[in-house]
Amino acid sequence: MIHINCPLKSRNPQSLNPINSLQNPSFPQSRMPSFLSKSFLRLPPKSLRFPMSTVAAAKSRLRGVVFDMDGTLTVPVIDFAAMYKAVLGDVEYKRIKAENPSGIDILHHIESWTPEKQQEAYKIIADFEKQGLDRLQIMPGAAELCGFLDAKKIRRGLITRNVKDAVDLFHQRFGMMFSPALSREFRPYKPNPAPLLHICSTWDVQPNEVMMVGDSLKDDVACGKNAGALTCLLDEKGRYGSQDFTNLDLTPDFKVSSLIEVHSLLKSNFDLTP
């Protein structure tokens, strides 16, 4: 401990403070300890002062990625417009499309129908989906991205509004396993957050430690946002830049045009330590 011995000529409390005495010309500068010199006490120039907000925040830990299947892990091959017309009829399709330019939620729409009419609609949808299975192709970059996640020991899950048979065929044909892998038999389906929250619970992780990746704002991004997860929109053809989607109050955390780009954003924005 350093003791300072300075003569006290006044009982004024201000004079008891050696820093205040710097402003007192009567204080003998020659008796001032060197560590209390003006150069020591001088503040750095304002240009060198850094607010707390400029300090780089630590990267968030990413513990799992959940993918959509059709149009995300697989190349889109189903003609949805033709399927909707077959289910709804041309007149009804045009009316609903005009009211919902950003897309038709056909599964939600037919839920209000009678059981007999629903059964007929599901049969039409299943026929279109089966045609899609016959032409199933893996999305470029999907295998590489899954290998990258496996190397980092980051879990992979899947949520689709397609049927379980489609998920089983995907696993068998491409040899990439996702667990859990939830099809539309799991209710309620996307955009309800229930399937994503179920996966988080199964993994024993928090939703904000998981990213939802998909090609639909209304299904995938909405599901992720509703669950409190991170979201990444795959927009291969730039369709979400059109006026049809300007009124949607949904903004993904990330947006990419290919699965290959997901590599870079994960490495740049997250702690991927195994």
From TrEMBL:
GO (cellular component) term, any one: chloroplast
SUPFAM superfamilies the record matches: HAD-like (SSF56784)
Gene3D superfamilies, per the entry: 1.10.260.80, HAD superfamily/HAD-like (3.40.50.1000)
Any Pfam family matching the protein: Hydrolase
Organism domain of life: Eukaryota
Descriptive protein name: Haloacid dehalogenase-like hydrolase domain-containing protein
